[in-house]
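Tokens in:
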């Protein structure tokens, strides 16, 4: 999620939780916040997009997969401050459940990597705290 240009207002972002065959779709973030960490794919909502349209576009850009985004089910603030306490990032993230439709994984945009992950694999991966909390809330992992 890029968009540090205007630090005076929070930005709205979406994430899509896609679970297929007992695996969840995750991306390794290529930008801050969370660079190098695994997370639910997503990004910023553009002017005129619905949450579903934004999620579908972002997942296609980051993973090469076509999804059908459903309703929002999890919302949180992501606020990161620098050493002096100034806000570096402030995102309001709305996560949506989504269904896999088609495509083969091909990481792109700001994703360093993308893959399907089992609950057992999560324990050995550097996953963002918010992603881990979300997946635990859903009952995907312990």
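Residues out:
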């Amino acid at each position: 999620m890029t968009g540090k240009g205007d630090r005076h207002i929070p930005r709205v972002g979406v994430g899509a939780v896609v679970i297929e065959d007992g695996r969840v779709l995750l991306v390794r973030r290529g930008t801050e916040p969370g660079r190098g960490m695994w997370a639910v794919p997503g990004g910023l909502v553009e002017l005129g997009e619905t949450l579903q349209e934004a999620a579908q576009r972002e997942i296609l850009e980051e993973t090469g997969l076509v999804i059908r985004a459903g309703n929002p089910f999890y919302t949180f603030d992501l606020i990161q401050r620098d050493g002096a306490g100034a806000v570096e990032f402030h995102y309001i993230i709305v996560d949506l459940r989504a269904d896999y439709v088609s495509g083969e994984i091909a990481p792109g945009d700001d994703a360093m990597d993308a893959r399907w992950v089992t609950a057992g694999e999560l324990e050995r991966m550097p996953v963002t705290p918010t992603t881990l909390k979300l997946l635990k809330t859903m009952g995907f992992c312990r």
